[in-house]
Design goal:
Blueprint (H helix, E strand, L loop, with lengths): L1 H9 L6 H32 L1 H16 L10 H5 L2 H13 L7 E4 L5 E3 L2 E3 L4 E4 L1 H4 L3 H4 L9 H9 L1 H10 L13 H18 E5 L8 E4 L1 E4 L4 E5 L4
Antiparallel strand pairs: 1-4, 2-3, 5-8, 6-7
C-alpha cells in the first residue's frame, strides 16, 4: 500500500486514487477466498484421515510441553519449526489447490518451445495446478493420495527429489505472477491450524461420502459439514 500511495503521489494521472483503492480491495478479496479454500482442504483431510490428525496433534502437544510452542497462541516462527505441520499444509494444498483452472501466460516475442512443440509469440498457454500436482513421476505412484509423509521422506532421502517436488508445487502460482498474498496466507494457516487441532475435535457429518466442490476458478467446497466439539483435555 505504501508503494501504491507513493506512485500515486509521484504521478496521480498514471496511478490514480481508483488504482490505489482497487489494489487494496483486490488483495483483501483474493486473500479471503484462497485462504478459506486452503484451510478447508487442510481440515477436511485431517478429519478424513484420523491417523494424520493424531500425528499432528501429538507434534503440537509435544512442542507445547517442551516449551517450543506457545499457549494459547502459536507464533509463526514456532509453526515453521514443526515439520509435520508444514508437511500437512503442503500436502493438503497439493491435493486440493485453491485454483482449478490454468495459470495463463502469453508467449513472448520470438516464440517458445514447450515439451518439443513450438508456440509462436502471442500464444496463450497455461498449466493447471491440479495437473502438475498429480504428476506421478514427481510425486510418486500414490500422487492422488493425501500423504504428508512424502515431503518428510523426500527431505531425508536426498535434496534433489525434494527440490523437484517443490519445483512442481504451485498452489500460489510461480514466478513473477506468484500470488501477492502467499506469505500472509501461509502465516494465517500456520498459526490457526495448530490451535484448531489442539482445542477441538472434528467429525464429518457424512464420513462415507466425499465432499463436493465447484470449480469457478477457485475450487470451493459446497457441502463441507462437520460436528465440532471442545476437546475434553481442554
Amino acid at each position: 500500500m505504501d508503494k501504491m500511495l507513493k506512485a500515486n503521489k509521484e504521478d496521480p494521472k498514471k496511478v490514480t486514487d481508483y488504482h490505489v483503492f482497487m489494489m487494496g480491495l483486490s488483495n483483501i478479496i483474493a486473500g479471503s477466498d484462497t485462504t478459506a479454500v486452503s484451510l478447508s482442504a487442510i481440515l477436511y483431510n485431517l478429519v478424513k484421515y484420523p491417523d494424520t490428525m493424531r500425528k499432528l496433534r501429538e507434534e503440537v502437544e509435544s512442542y507445547g510441553a517442551e516449551g517450543r510452542c506457545g499457549y494459547p497462541n502459536v507464533s509463526f516462527k514456532e509453526s515453521q519449526d514443526m515439520p509435520y505441520l508444514q508437511a500437512v499444509m503442503k500436502e493438503a494444498l497439493r491435493v486440493h489447490s485453491a485454483t482449478g483452472l490454468p495459470l495463463w501466460r502469453v508467449v513472448p516475442e520470438g516464440g517458445a518451445e514447450i515439451s518439443g512443440r513450438f508456440f509462436p509469440a502471442g500464444t496463450v498457454v497455461g498449466v493447471n495446478t491440479w495437473v502438475a500436482h498429480s504428476n506421478e513421476d514427481v510425486f510418486g505412484k500414490d500422487a492422488k493420495q493425501f500423504r504428508p509423509e512424502r515431503w518428510i521422506e523426500a527431505e531425508k532421502e536426498n535434496g534433489q527429489r525434494l527440490k523437484e517436488m517443490e519445483a512442481y508445487y504451485m498452489p500460489f502460482g510461480l514466478g513473477s505472477r506468484t500470488c501477492l498474498g502467499k506469505h500472509i496466507s501461509i502465516l494465517e494457516m500456520s498459526k490457526l491450524i495448530p490451535q484448531l487441532v489442539r482445542k477441538f475435535d472434528f467429525e464429518l457429518e457424512r464420513p462415507e461420502k466425499e465432499w463436493e466442490t465447484t470449480n469457478v476458478w477457485f475450487v470451493k467446497p459446497v457441502d463441507f459439514r462437520v460436528k465440532v466439539k471442545l476437546r475434553k483435555t481442554m
